[in-house]
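Recap quiz, item 2
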Amino acid sequence: MRAEAVREAVWVPPRPRVRVPGWVWAVPVYGFLLLFVVYPLVRLLGEAVTDDAGRVTGEFLAQFATDPFYRKALANSLWVAGGTTVGCVVLGLVAAFLLVRYDFPGRELWSYLTVLPIVMPPLVGIMGLVFVLGRAGTVNVLLMDLFGLARPVNFLYGWHGVLLAMVLHYFPLVTLNVVDALTKVDASLEEAAEAMGSRGLRRVWDITLPLLTPGLVSGATLVFILSFADFATPLVVGMQDLLAAQAYLNIVQFVDRRLFRMGLVVGALMSVMAIGFLVVARRAVAMREYAVVSYRAVERQPLRGWWRFVAPAFFACALGLAFLPHLGLLLAAFGKAWSLTPFPTRFTLEHFDQVLHLTPTYVVNSLRWGAVAVALILVLGVSIGWMLARTSLPGRGLVDSLVTLVLALPGTAVGIAYLRAFHTPLLGITLTRSWFVMPLVLAVRRMPYTVRATFASLLTVHRATEEAAASVGASPLRIFRDISLPLIWRGVVAGALFSLLFALQEAAATILLVLPGWETITVGIFTFYTSGTFGQAAALGVVLVVLSSATLYAIYRVTGARLGGLFGSGGG
Amino acid sequence: MRVRLEGVVKRYGATVALAGVSLEIREGELFTLLGPSGCGKTTTLRILAGFVEPDEGEVYFDDVSVRGVPPAERGVGIVFQNYALWPHMTVFDNVAYGLRLRKLPPAEVRRRVRDALEQVGLVGMEDRTPGQLSGGQQQRVAVARALVLNPRLLLLDEPLSNLDAKVRARLRSEIRKLQQDLGITTVYVTHDQEEAMVLSDRIAVMRDGRVTQVGSPADLYERPADLFVADFVGTNNLLPGTVAHVQDGWAELQTPAGPMRGRAAGPLQPGQDAVLTVRPEAVQISDGGAGGVSVPGKVALAQYLGSLLRYEVEVGGGRVLLVDVSNPKGTPSYRPGQPVRVTFDPSAALVFPEDGRA
């Protein structure tokens, strides 16, 4: 016992320091959100109901409502988004159930592979599919050669092609969310149902699915909103009568002022609808939030008999289809003057020489904007995540809603909103004419992933862990550096990498805001492809897929493959 | 150090966590805040620590108000309920953190950490991380971390609630001995009345944001201030009835089990609803009637606990009376179903006005 030693030691007061009130930190964050989220959005919504002279009018809304073309576009958009969501939910649920509940040959491998489609954005995916399944693609050329078909089969041109490309890209979002929810379902809940005679699908329907609802709904909402807002993918297969495509086409033409105004109206309506979808989804989730106290995982069952082969076959088919565009992409990227043959007859590095060496602008810009955006995201996203998890500052709830809103706002609408809000000087800077608008819009759009990751990681760190440091004299910044950050950095880095991944793939807001010299990879793909320079579009596509894969690999290394929960649009 | 709380009020929105708490904690004593969850004991502790500022009232450390003084400058050491050890730091780093923040020379840091670890018997564990320690060891690290800065006041927030029964009993006495060795003023929060009784110099029983009674363990047990304390501290028999007669500090009660008598422990009027309490060890069980209060009953259960034999006896009105027989020898003398009489001395019984909640 050394009681004397401790008793005689002197109480050492902590070192004096200047205390900054909490709201001082919050002001820049609030300011940023007001200026770069609220203001452009309000501006866009306002433009939909004012005419060129600034008078409030319902004329444009009425015009939208009475024009059969726009009504058709709205129906098509809902149809594509709804179809994509249903497809993703079915594929995602089956994949998640198989991966979590059953054991079969290659399960581990499939569980890694199932996330991979994320590396191929739909814009690149549909392009890759066109090379394989398009009018002059591999399959049609083979069919015409072998069976003497007079006309190519239409695999892609129309909503079915758009659906295919989107489902194949987005279903992992549902899988990840459901896997996350499914692993947290307590085995005893299902056992209790089983003991009462509820079996098989009945039990899944009565017990398991309701427990999965929050995860499922947040994944599905995200898929719905993303596919609703995508204009580049449909345009690749010539589908123009969709809301997002109309918004884009009306805005980029500068001939007809009325059409331009209608572009604004469509953009505003899409925002309002996205917000509506989000609210509905949140309601649905809020009614079904169940607290998990503690759980014992359901034991994985080996699949027996021929079922052993059905599961791998399912993954092989789904992922095989998902990898089909990669094949097309590679053929087109390396093929030389490929036309009218099933496969290129000669191969070349010419296209890569073009996009990587002769005009590396696209790749360089993507990396540059990505880096600046991630820096912004880290500063803002971590601050906001910390604020939401750890403070009771006024306006917290509003900030939380804004962050979720940003996730839901269609990229097209954000692009249009920025074009309108920042084309006049602001503190002497016309933002739309400064390159900074590119990383800025990327940062705003992709910040929610980092906010969410920071928030979720902080929730796992008990408050007392930080209070203990405060009680021995650490300042708030010091606590964050010494205690919180070492415990959450993996989550934060994973969130930031997701932000980077989706910033690289961004192909809506940036396409609208881009000025010559600022082009990104996706802008390059879009313009090359729509102007018929397929080889270079494909080469850029390959570069994007490689960059995305590298980012995803980094995420795996950082998180130790515990994904999920990052993609939700509800909860938080 | 002496601590004084004066009329401390804390509200969270519409909920009142503390509705005017006044307490005096004496130099060097182990003072326990005891109460069920939601009674305000943890809020009180957090106010002492400085994590929460009271809405009204003052807190004085040695007669100096600590309003606005941040936790680190109050000279308090805190042991958290879940220990709050930093999982990414070793035992040594956990304990040394506060010393390093104060930029003490490394040799001094090492010496003081070693002293603190020696005190809690963890020398040799310096390089482990919290994840490699048992619950009891983690708890000791938390104590060492709280003591290493030599605080003037030690705050313990349910420090034993996450441990199993055996470890809990051992650490309980260790904490008490350590506290007495150091002579450090200590505030201990718990919902476990047995723990409070064993450890404390004095206990404040709290309920609904108020202090209902402050006193030594014996005070609370023998002279509970109200029905709540009588029920919450120790095991007790509660027999509700109607007051028949009050005279000279004695009250006669009509209960479904029969007429009873005890000392009046509050203002009582004939006709009023009241509750008679009598400790199980003050009740006797027998075949025939004897003096004092005596009612018939039927043995429902006999529990043999080694040093104690506890009968549950059904009396009139569906009430069950606990009767403790100490140092029983061999098998119980009364079997379930057997009719008996239960008897107690009226001076061992207290009659409280019914407060509508117990």
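The first strand of chain B starts at residue 3 and ends at 12.
The interface with chain A takes residues 49-51, 70-73, 75-78, 80-82, 84-88, 97-99, 101-104, 112, 115-116, 118-119, 145, 147-152, 178, 181-183 of chain B (CB under 8 Å).
End of item.
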